[in-house]
Amino acid sequence: MIALLAPLILKAASQTALQPATSALPEDVRAFIVRRNECDHYRGEDSPDPGRRAEIDAQLTRLCTGSDRQLAGLKHKHARSPAVLRALDVYEPRIE
Questions:
Q1: Residue 81's Cα: distance from chain center in Å?
Q2: Which branch of life, at top level (predicted)?
Q3: What is the CA angle 11-8-88, rounded to 5?
Q4: Whether 39 contacts 67, CB under 8 Å
Q5: What is the pTM of this model?
Q6: What is the mean predicted confidence (pLDDT) over 86-90?
Q7: Which end of the chain has fewer CB within 10 Å, C or N?
Q8: Interatomic CA distance for residues 77 and 13, integer angstroms
Q9: Gap between the Cα atoms of 84 and 6, Å rounded
């Protein structure tokens, strides 16, 4: 079980290590980071079980839809904030 979780734990740890303290970031950026991290979690998950697959697909729709546009908008809105741009640069710009 731990072997199955290791890639997810490493991915989450690497994303966290690359980001500055989120408490110093604007609220809209913090909310995006939380949502996108959850989206990325489900993007990395798969299951042969139809019920679980349906749950994963529902979460992907809920969490990931619109995130490309939101990321671009936040980068534009906060273009003069190096801390915000560093925090957002860890995310892939096109996942949808």
A1: 20
A2: Bacteria
A3: 35
A4: yes
A5: 0.75
A6: 97
A7: N
A8: 27
A9: 28
